[in-house]
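Researcher: Can you fold this with flavin-adenine dinucleotide in place?
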Amino acid sequence: MPEIFDVIIIGAGIAGASVAANLAATHKVIILEREEFAGFHATGRSAALFSEIYGNSTVRALTRASRNFFYEPPQGFSEHPLVCPRGSLFIARQDQLAQLACFADQNDVNGWVRAIDASEALQLCPILRADYVAAALLETGAADMDVAAIHQGYLRQMRSAGGTLLTNAEVLELTRSDGQWCARTREASFRAPVLVNAAGAWADLIAAKAGIRPLGIQPCRRTALLVDTPSGIMASGFPMVIDIEETFYFKPDAGLLLLSPADESPMEPCDVQPEELDVAIAVDRVQHATTLTIPRIRKRWAGLRSFAPDRTPVVGFDPLREGFFWLAGQGGYGIQTAPAAGALAAALIRDDLPDELITLPIEALSPGRKELGGDGSNRRNT
Ligand SMILES: Cc1cc2nc3c(=O)[nH]c(=O)nc-3n(C[C@H](O)[C@H](O)[C@H](O)COP(=O)(O)OP(=O)(O)OC[C@H]3O[C@@H](n4cnc5c(N)ncnc54)[C@H](O)[C@@H]3O)c2cc1C
């Protein structure tokens, strides 16, 4: 006999963990995760930056609504601070000044940044080349996130409220009958009226298994590598440095420097690995902008950032299929938006929106929005 739950969540990345933690006190929840451990895919592979000016305006709104959680998490959530301040520095060459000005002009950017000249940028990050940087924007409110502490904190919160995480449990089949979803894995079946699709790069495949129209969520590979910091330079206080056109970025990471070519190659969902060419591009671009020479790479990896066609996350009930909830398409912002997105998802499932979430852009996040081919309607949990 299938085990009965109130909510089945597919995927134990940051999305599944955050909604589970928010629901477990009031609902009997189970997370089904295909891999041997939670966080194996995108969640365990991020660059861990919290920036309130990254992404589009909907992403920024979710990130800002998540800020308090990171700085003042619930008692007992984690033994470690979840964030540690680290400025983000958006740099421009002479020929990119128009892009820098255009970026700074946006309403939900200009109050969060300070325009600085090249010499101040070089003071903040002395490895930048004086003949490369013409001007920059400094976001002092940005921070490094401790992704493992955040992710484990959510899983612990869920478990202590009675929720279950089942790993090595790939969902192979989804059916709906008598007002309940049935999720079948190799070993067992589970039933619940509500199913949450938090499957990251596999979100559209999960929809297809459930007989639901996919939303066009596209996984894109992003590469990262760790290299030595230059000897004699205290790099730990450098800001995260991001090219204004996002063709590369770098930041200190546990005594090393994390580099990325900011690649975005469309892929089929998989356990993605880095391509040598992307690694070489990252090294080349960073060497071009800085005085660094990079003789060897300590570590390299890649992960999938999954985007809806309008680059906005999808949070809400499917407009056409009862009990199917989307929590997907978090792109490159899934960690920094998780507190608000997880709380919103849980509130929509409970059909009880607290005052502090009412101001979130719920329509813009809805799977029924026009940008995703819907009619703009929002389905509720009825
Ligand atoms: C290089 C890189 C840098 C990034 N930098 C940042 C950053 O600085 N800041 C930020 O906020 N975000 C960043 N991100 C993005 C962030 O990592 C993602 O948005 C976030 O981790 C997505 O979480 P998720 O839970 O949706 O997906 P995932 O962590 O991929 O979790 C989905 C889970 O679903 C499981 N699953 C899929 N299909 C099934 C099935 N059939 N049955 C059971 N389980 C299934 C998978 O195994 C997986 O564990 C970065 C990502 C990358 C790759």
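Model: Folded with flavin-adenine dinucleotide in place. The chain is about 25% helix and 25% strand.
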